[in-house]
Amino acid sequence: MRAAIRNLAAVACVGALLTACSSGNGTTPDASQSGAASADPNEKVTLTVATFNEFGYEELFEEYMADNPNVTIEARKAATSNEARDNMNTRLAAGSGLADIEAIEIDWLTELMQYPDKFVDLADPELDGRWLEWKSDAVTTEDGKVIGYGTDIGPEAICYRADLFEKAGFPTDREEVADLLEGDWDTYFNVGKDFVAKSGGVAWFDSASATFQGMVNQVENPFENSDGTPIPLSENDEIKAIYDDIATAATDDNLSAGLAQWSEDWTNAFQTDKFATMLCPGWMLGVIEGNAQGVEGWDIANVFPGGGGNWGGSYLTVPEQGANHEQAKKLAAWLTAPEQQIKAFQAKGTFPSQVEALEDPALLDQTNAFFNDAPTGQILAERAKAIEVAPFKGPNYFALAQLVTDALNRLDVEGTDDAAGSWDKALEAYNALGLS
Amino acid sequence: MNQQLTRSQRLSRLDVKASPYLYISPFFILFFIVGLFPLVYTAWVSVHDWHLIGGQGEMVGLTNYIDVLQHPNFFKALRNTFSIFLLSSVPQVLAAIVIAYLLDTNLRAKTFWRMGVLLPYVVAPVAVSLIFAKIFADQSGLVNAVLEILGTSPIGWHADPFAAHVAIATMVNFRWTGYNALIFLAAMQAIPREIYEAAIIDGANRWRTFFSVTVPMLRPTIIFVVITSTIGGLQIFDEPRMFDTLGQGGADRQWMTLTMYIYELGWGAQKSFGRAAAVSWLLFLIIIAVGVINFLITRSIASSSSGKAGR
Amino acid sequence: MSTQMSTPMIEQLAGKGAARAARRKLHGVDKRPGWLTYGALAAVVLISFYPIWFTILLASSNAGEIARNPIPSLIPAGEFLTNVTRVIESDIKFWTALANSIIVSTVTAISVVFFSTLAGYSFAKLRFRGSNGLLVFVIATMAVPTQLSIVPLFILMSELDWVGKLQAVIVPGMVTAFGVFWMTQYLREALPFELIEAARVDGASMIRTFWSVAMPAARPAAAMLALFTFVGSWTNFFWPFIILGSANPTLPVALQLLQASYFKDYSLIMAGVVVATLPLVILFAVAGRQLVAGIMQGAVKG
């Protein structure tokens, strides 16, 4: 017994020693107070780059390090954007620990734009016009400070099931479908009503709240005025009208399959013909293909109600906390150049936000076998150019959007309330938020 | 009589007096370093207007507490927390004692049975959430499929609050019952066999020995399990968060617990660190109160049953 | 139950016949349990094992099959080794993560057991001023929700320059209130005062008494605590993710990266889960044997 305990103690000591010695990987560079530019551009420097999901940068890092031998790039990765966000928020709150380049998602911008002093100004006249206007406008403050460089975007088209269309007597060729759905949301819903009458139980789209997302992204000031003050929900006629439209379409006209996106029911619904169309950004293609293995008939049409829409997209930022502002800015600019973004696109399918990249043959020639060999690159590039409006998203955008999304989910997915009752609950929740 | 203490006697006295404090000091030292600072920090944050990214605002006293107590979501979270807590802790503790009692017998292949019940504790959350999602999905889940075959209507696991609580409590019980059973088992193994032998010679059957011998001797452990289950049960976070992909607790907050509410306030859309800290402290007080109540209840039950045995 | 009679005593006091009768009754104590017990336990173990079986099923399949059959068949397909190889060869720093997890969990478990037994012994068996209040304080520290302490803890680790290093994960977990409370309650019940008195009378110092009396008595509970602490540390995700990240990960942090895509390939993810769980199952087999009461049984006679 005593020998055993002595052995345990020895192991513990060795363990403690190993711990002290194994700290080698991943030490963050000292977060010096001012990110002083190094006078010597050839000085050895280690840059940490934090991304999430799949940016497609692995080979690009190798290339940059080969071209710039004084630079070592350390990649940090989080699996999902939510994890990356928690990580970034912790380090912002703690005041230290951020990487030299932090990737952010467009959804995080509403709050980060409130604190532009946490990020280095990346404005560079040489890079003007590199990105689609709405993409770069979103990261530019009123004073002209640019806090991020755009990486990818999520332009949306309509994905549909040609086989289910055929059974309902609808056209199946993607150009005909594009003509059929050309127009605004009323067109989309009316065609849907027609479809549901003939489909024998198949719904038109998967989720009311997901469709609502597409609709709201075309409104200039959905929940807030351009000065940042919130529009009281009870006075927000525009959103109420949209809510009524989608609520009627979803439940009264039975256009919705009543699914919550990403849930188990939604994943399984791809195999059981629950719905025939859905709003489709570029990154959703892989998801559909994965979930709909063995299902034949998916296609994508070069159309979107209201012209164009965007869902998702990221930027690279350079936090003020870091120690290597100049080098980081240089690397970020290089990574987000059209040539590099195309390479990332080829590696992981991230859709470029750079104007030049949208003309690149590597993009325009891309087809997708699962989607009936559709020219997805070309379709999504045209949808990207059709985007006219970038909705204003102020500090309370997501809290307010969540109120309406919750209302739709209560109605559509959970079935706990009717449209009027659910809207009333949203009004109550708005008051409880305690905004002006 | 004048007794002069020898040096070794004085050292011995010091040894006796000081050792207890020395032995408990590692916990307290570590706590003061890594436990106390977050506590004080959270208390400090709760009386300020504090945005997670923006940082410290002005001191607002108890405003955060008052705001939070006026928000209906707080009370929904409270209701959900207590409901899930009762649905999970009560069956769990009872089942754990019974399972431990069964494991305490002279089984063949003891290690297999004992470790077998602990398996749920090691299954990774991603696997647990996937499996239970397939069981409790509203449209395509296993339970609803079985209900349909049996002819009854399906249950809205993600729509109805109580159904959601039952599903989540099932996930919690699944994970922790074996764990608690082994705690009871370790304690049961320490009961000397002679007491059992004497009881059996005196004519007691299995039930009698259980209630009159095992339970009273397990009193400290029962108190331990009840208190840790209470503390853990009121802080349930992972299971309700995994119950759907959004992690919000339902569109109508049907299954949002208080710890989820803290997370939402602090890390979610509002990023109000101050309000999140206020809810943290309120939850702390609630846990202390319920913990004390449970302790008193358990202590009186456990002593009364030992009183009956006349030990 | 006022006397504790063993069969030899009965033989001495009441003769052979009575002793034989007692022995026949005593057969009930250590007899093998019946079908009901085995049946109930089998049901429990089956339910406990199902998720692991399910995980193995998914890990033996591929993404296409999983999509087509939401509820898989009960027999695994053949691709288990392929998927495990994919896991080990993915760009997630698998071997570093494995080594880190072993170091962190082992050191944490040993440390928690040692310090908890030390403190538990004091609270349970030593009389000192303030012991009740201090024990209540220890228990109360468990009641503090931890969702927000990530930020102050990160600040602390930043000050100590431990961000990204293993000690940032080990040190906060070196002694836990749960462990202290558990050992206190166990030792209250399992360590008779008489044994301690005997050692003191023999002239042992406090630490000597602890080492030779308390630690052996605590063995089953200590084994349990070591096991629980090891498993808890091994499966801990959020704090290691925040403080270590993908650069110097522990196993859960590294395996989480298998989910880094919009479409989740569950055959790969579940293979990762199996790989992470296997060491624990092995540990179970080893540690399970320790869960046997030690030398205390029968050590004290009436």
Describe the 3D structure.
The complex is a heterotrimer of chains A (436), B (311) and C (302). Chain A has 436 residues and is an alpha/beta fold. In chain A, 44% of the residues lie in helices and 13% in strands. Chain A folds into 2 domains: 45-153 and 312-364, Periplasmic binding protein-like II (D-Maltodextrin-Binding Protein, domain 2, 3-Layer(aba) Sandwich), CATH 3.40.190.10; 156-310 and 389-433, D-Maltodextrin-Binding Protein, domain 2. Chain A contains 18 helices and 9 strands. In chain A, strands 1, 2, 3, 4, 5, 6, 7, 8 and 9 form a 9-stranded mixed sheet that branches. In chain A, strand 1, helix 2 (58-67) and strand 2 (71-78) form a beta-alpha-beta unit. The relative contact order of chain A is 0.16. Mean pLDDT of chain A is 88; it is low at 1-5 and 7-38. By secondary structure, chain B is mainly α. Helices cover 74% and strands 3% of the residues of chain B. Chain B has 14 helices and 2 strands. A two-stranded antiparallel sheet of chain B has the order 1-2. Classes of the chains: A alpha/beta (436), B mainly alpha (311), C mainly alpha (302). At the A-B interface, helix 3, helix 11, helix 17 and helix 18 of A face helix 6 of B.
Features:
heterotrimer, A: 436 residues, alpha/beta, D-Maltodextrin-Binding Protein, domain 2, 2 domains, nine-stranded mixed β-sheet, 9 strands, 13% strand, globular, B: 311 residues, mainly alpha, MetI-like fold, two-stranded antiparallel sheet, 14 helices, flat
Q: What's the short story on this structure?
A:
The complex is a heterotrimer of chains A (436), B (311) and C (302). Chain A has 436 residues and is an alpha/beta fold.
Distance between the termini of chain C: 12 Å
Q: Write down the overall geometry of chain C.
A: flat
Radius of gyration of chain B: 25 Å
Described by strand count, sense and barrel closure, the largest sheet of chain B is:
2 strands, antiparallel
Number of strands of chain C: 0
By CATH, the topology of the largest domain in chain B is MetI-like fold
Please state the CA-atom Rg of chain C, rounded to the nearest Å: 25 Å
Q: Give the count of helical stretches of chain B.
A: 14
**CATH architecture classification of the domain at 90-288 in chain C:** Orthogonal Bundle
Q: Would you tell me the overall average pLDDT of chain C?
A: 86
Helix fraction of chain C, binned, reads 55-70%
Q: How much helix, percentage-wise, in residues of chain B?
A: over 70%
Multimer state: heterotrimer
Enter the CATH topology name of the domain at 90-288 in chain C. Answer: MetI-like fold
